[in-house]
Amino acid sequence: VLIPADVTPENVTTSIVDCSLGNEGEAYITSELKQANVVCIVYTVSDDNTIKRVTDKWLPLLRDVYGPEHEIPVILVGNKSDGSTNHTDKVLPIMERWPEVETCVECSAKTMKNVSEIFFYAQKAVVHPTRPLYDADEKRLTDKTRKALIRVFKICDRDNDGYLNDAELNEFQKLCFGIPLTSAAIEDILSAVETNARGWITYAGYMAYWNMTTLINVSQTMEQLAYLGFAVGRSTQTRAGSSADAIKITRERKIDLTERGTTRRVFQCLVVGAKDTGKSVFMQSLVGRGLLDATHAGRRHYPYVINRVKVKEEIKYLLLREVDVLSPQDVLSSAETAADVVAFLYDISNPESFAFCATIYQKYFYRTRTPCVIIATKVEREEVEQRWEVSPEEFCRQFELPRPIRFTNSQRRKKQSEP
């Protein structure tokens, strides 16, 4: 089947070749694979045997054909997803173990659900590949990409003062998309990263923003890099060399947990708590802001804050992601429960506040290997007894968690000096 270029968003002609071991021999499939730019592996969402064949047969076959560290992107396609139930949790372990798997899409040939999306992702995986630019295991930009972004920052910093003011941010936006930033969009950016005394984004804040965008929306980062002219592809040569040099293969995260060590540089912390527990103040303190700054930022709610932190003399990036819990029965998404660490906030002056934390912890994080901390907020107020089976201190003892950390609105993180 041939899809003409004029009906695709990327304006590229796409040839679809259907292969199965039941109809063609392995030699024929190998021949077709060698000509492919992207591979879609189809399984049935309700048949565990077909899911098992993805790892037992198809993915090993691709490595036999392309090599163990190949760069051909793979899309997992869950077919016969005719109902409303999502089954992607079954293949998430596959995506974590096999870095060549770009994404997973569930579809239905019967109802045509997500069929066009499959080919959109397949085209995007080839035209805008992520692996040369983004290390999925470490959840950070590759070193080559970081160097390119630093150069972009220096180009946009017209007055060479080490900061991007509003005008320079607008120039950056117009360079990428041809339209200026709105005042509201500039506010969102500046509330999420570290700025200087004049409210201008610093070099550290600029790099932190790229890391944040990459972690929460890889596609947006890839699009911005493409607009900036960053060349990618297996055979593409630039003045800095092949973009394939930017690829870095790292070990699985479960090995990091076993060996109690990692080379990752970007970590996501989920900030969970009932409404009005002081989450915004807590998050803004990461970028050196206090209560008044958090109140101003709260007028336009942006659930992320990122900054550099020093861990054992190494610079890491910590991304805080805010989650409002409206009731203890609230459901967290798989993306939220996949955070590297969780901070549960409760208001010591609200007797109902800790119940939210305790319920969510027991429901999603008890007996997992996700580090969790309990943070008592508004400690400058009079403390009341929490309406829970045990006190927060006893709860931490029972579940072998660190003692609750006390946080006051007056606490602010000292800003790091800029290079």
Give an account of the 3D structure.
With about 425 residues, the protein is of the alpha/beta class. It has three domains: about 1-125, Rossmann fold (3-Layer(aba) Sandwich); about 140-255, EF-hand (Recoverin, domain 1, Orthogonal Bundle), CATH 1.10.238; about 265-405, P-loop containing nucleotide triphosphate hydrolases (Rossmann fold, 3-Layer(aba) Sandwich), CATH 3.40.50.300. About 35% of the residues lie in helices and about 20% in strands. The chain is built from 15 helices and 17 strands. It has helices at about 25-35, 50-65, 90-95, 115-125, 145-155, 165-175, 185-190, 205-215, 220-225, 255-260, 280-285, 290-295, 335, 355-365, 390-400, and strands spanning about 1-5, 15, 40-45, 75-80, 100-105, 135, 140, 165, 200, 235-240, 240, 265-275, 305-310, 315-325, 340-345, 370-375, 405. A six-stranded mixed β-sheet has the order 13-14-12-15-16-17. The chain is globular and about 75 Å long. Mean pLDDT is about 80; it is low at about 235-250 and about 410-419. InterPro entries: EF-hand-dom_pair, EF_Hand_1_Ca_BS, EF_hand_assoc_1, EF_hand_dom, MIRO_dom, P-loop_NTPase, Small_GTPase, Small_GTPase_Rho. It is a single-pass type IV membrane protein. Keywords: Calcium, GTP-binding, Hydrolase, Membrane, Metal-binding, Mitochondrion, Mitochondrion outer membrane, Nucleotide-binding, Repeat, Transmembrane, Transmembrane helix. It comes from Teladorsagia circumcincta (Brown stomach worm). GO terms for molecular function: calcium ion binding; GTP binding; GTPase activity.
